[in-house]
User: Fold these one by one.
Assistant:
Number 1:
Amino acid sequence: MRLQKYMADCGIASRRKCEEYIEQGLVTVNGEVALLGMSIDPDTDRVEYDGEVLKKDRNSEKVVIMLNKPRGVVSSCSDPQGRRTTADYFRDLPYRLYNVGRLDIDTEGLLLFTNDGDFAYKVMHPSFEIHKTYRALIDGELTHEQAERLRHGVMLDDGMTSPAAVEGISVGENDTSFYIRIHEGRNRQVRRMIDAIGHKTLRLRRVAVGQLKLYGLHTGEWRFLTREEIDGILNGK
Ligand code: URA
């Protein structure tokens, strides 16, 4: 079995992230620094990451959790500045969970956690085209032309964005709110798209991942997903 697949099965991170850990020399197999591309035998090889020997059976029950992340909470395991992190919500659970993607500190809403590396990989990798829907509140009026620019794709410093769906536009006196649906997951992508068309983001909340909606969870609340909900995200049902 490929080393990165084994690591993902043990709940370390997505396969892609595990490849990075291997490349960075953070993983050993039987005491030797592992090389990218190597295969291991889970029954006989001893794999260590971050000073811990990996065990597959420890996380044999795969779970996916949905959190309604509040603004001001950092999407990571720890924060050098001592701010509240998403991992703080799950300290008492017997799972080694990690974020399925991230929301920036100012963004609220639907964030998933899992110990299933394959699930995380599929949700995060743009090739699976699992859409993420946000409700954005921006300053001023979003014009028809600006909405079209978002739909078409805008040029950011890391390249052109894929076409986005922009719907439910509601123009207020001094601001506009609308839904924007994208399937890429670049850093602060929605905020940067809104910057690129000349507006400021006043509030950003992720309201859906694939078919899964945030309904029913107050800010700071979380719950386990059902098998149907997990399959629904992956199969687009
Ligand atoms: N786009 C952003 O700007 N921030 C997020 O957290 C997610 C998408």
Number 2:
Amino acid sequence: MPGRQNTLVEYGVATGILITLEGPDGAGKTTQANLLQRRLELLGHTVVRTREPGGDAVGEKVRAMLLHDKMTPEAEFLLFAASRAQNVADVIEPALAAGAVVLCDRFIDSSIAYQGYGRGLSVEFITAANAFATKGRMPDCTVLMDVPVEVGKARREGGGDVNRLDMEASSFHAKVRDGYLAAAAANPERIKLIDAECDVDTLEVRVWGAIAWLFASGS
Ligand code: TYD
């Protein structure tokens, strides 16, 4: 498959496809993940959904700590990385080995954006620690749904659970957005940057337009 990155890592060759969904809180990732799952299943694919933090029993416990307990930026990152390691080992790798399409809500780029740019931790260190946690497993494609900070804030306030990171100041969320845009600029092949300041149906068309190449016959 030209352009796909999941060739050989410590876990071995995967026959599935790993797609990660990224973006600021309020970008609409979960709705789009639901729509994408339905479309892929209609096309005959087996879809496995997972999320970070969480995804497996250990990750869900770590999630509860991360989203509610106050902690240092360093502890915060290490817990996200711990959840990621377990999610890759327990959910993502077995699903890829079985040939599934894995849709992962947040992955390595969230740590770059939130802990690297948002909290000011070393992006170089986070990149290395992400590789350690994932044993080198990279997404085949990352869909980055971008919305301006104020739009994300308004959408968060419109409903859903509010977590510790959601409650950070707008200046934090502005840095997170900068981090995502920097990650997209540094990885233009993997990360598909999408303007998510639109209605659900328009966004669905944009998301599919960014990843359809992964499912084209002969790829
Ligand atoms: P969640 O409720 O899953 O948010 P969303 O629905 O927007 O994905 O909460 C996850 C929060 O954790 C979110 O604010 C982003 C943050 N996060 C990090 O700060 N670093 C990370 O590495 C990950 C995976 C998430």
Number 3:
Amino acid sequence: MWEQLRDEGGINGRQVLIYKRLNSTNTTALNLSAEGAPPGTVVAADSQSAGRGRLGRKWQSPPGLGLYFSIISRPRLGLSDLMKITLTAGLALRTAIFATSALETELKWPNDILWRGKKMAGILTECGAASEKGRAVIIGIGLNVNSGPDDFPAEMGRRGVSMRMAAERFYDRGLILTAVTEAVEREVKRLESGAFAAILRDWRRWDASAGRQLTWLKPDGMPVCGISLGPDENGLLRIKDNTGRIHQVISGDLRLRDDGTDNN
Ligand code: BTN
């Protein structure tokens, strides 16, 4: 798959850098953006030795099975818009998965793509340093494409799923990389044009948590139990706790309570 993208000169003229193995495509993308890499540059690796997830978790990245890549973006947006970018990228990823496989996935705030409650993909958005060109935002995406049930780490139990497992067929990772990259670029343009309210409306259609009981583990480890009211107009999650108080969630771990399958 990689060779084909190289031969064809990237994705729609975008620079696509493909590596056999990296520590983390996000780290390489952050370094390249500091050196002035053009926006739209895609950094992909067949495997990662230190793939990162949210909340300091690892993202297992064995060769030949998944997509691990980072898009360098320089959106005309502020630092406070980072959450909006993550939600926008999630919607784009969902759209691209559906377009390439007809699989109906759901979105779990802020960055997970679920299929029947199991995790198919995750997004890690990180900010580069500000320069005269603006601030780079790295949109890192890990998507389980051709993994089988035994390819997930033991600690994940049965909570991971791939496109192959869901659709019972293998997929060409190059085609999916192209579809996701184009969808992310399209949606981020829409966000830059001020259409976050419309993006949020679309996002909410696929919200896996809305109206469901969940436990939010605050960054200090204290649990808050309540019902998800979905993201607000800034992309922050609102949870109504059992006393009726509404909390605004910026970060921390979220566990849906009804089925216990998607506690990532
Ligand atoms: C999460 O679910 O917590 C986010 C996972 C993001 C993983 C991707 S893989 C490509 C990119 N490089 C990284 O080190 N992480 C992201």
Number 4:
Amino acid sequence: MRKNVFIALEGIDGSGKSTQIKLLAKQLEKAGHQVYTTFEPTDSPIGKMIRDIFSHRMEADHKVIAGLFVADRLNHLLNKSDGILKKLEEGYTVLTDRYYLSSYAYHSVHMDMDWVIQANAMSAELLRPDLNIYIDIPPEISMERINRGRASIEMYETLDNLRQVREKYYEAFDKVKEEENIYITNSNRAPEEVATDIWNEVSRLLI
Ligand code: TYD
């Protein structure tokens, strides 16, 4: 069986990624994988700066945000203590909550998507996910979930923005369909059903 694969979970805010990542990690562990789960923006100083911008403690132009994500991602891959490349070398299967497809979708609402793809080319060259899983949800439903679960709303969490981001995700999938392995699943149903479909897809990678 193939071990240490790299899988990215994608979706708009409130799509249920974090629930699915936990369920997928459990299944992989049951199948004998050592699993390392991680996320972007990371908790590095660069990731913290991004979160400060999102929570309005700091101000920055969208182009600067896109650039910070490029740096955060490269550090996520390359840092010597717990970088993704190191974890893969150590034999872990790595699951990340967001990777460069998030940048393609979120930032191209504000700038040219090709620029965002170019800016992330080094990460794509260093490590392409074996599988990108996109958890699809109508933006109206994700907004309801966000409003129920959070005391404060972050920068990108408005209905209008999430609608645009969802459209950009689909535009990005079309643009990169030759290079990327993308699986789309609908999450407007019981989490266990979504998890079963995801596991069926991931199992095919592991043969
Ligand atoms: P995330 O941590 O998934 O959201 P949550 O607040 O639910 O934990 O992501 C935070 C925000 O970062 C989310 O609105 C999407 C945005 N984002 C980008 O704009 N570009 C990127 O490249 C990534 C990875 C995330």
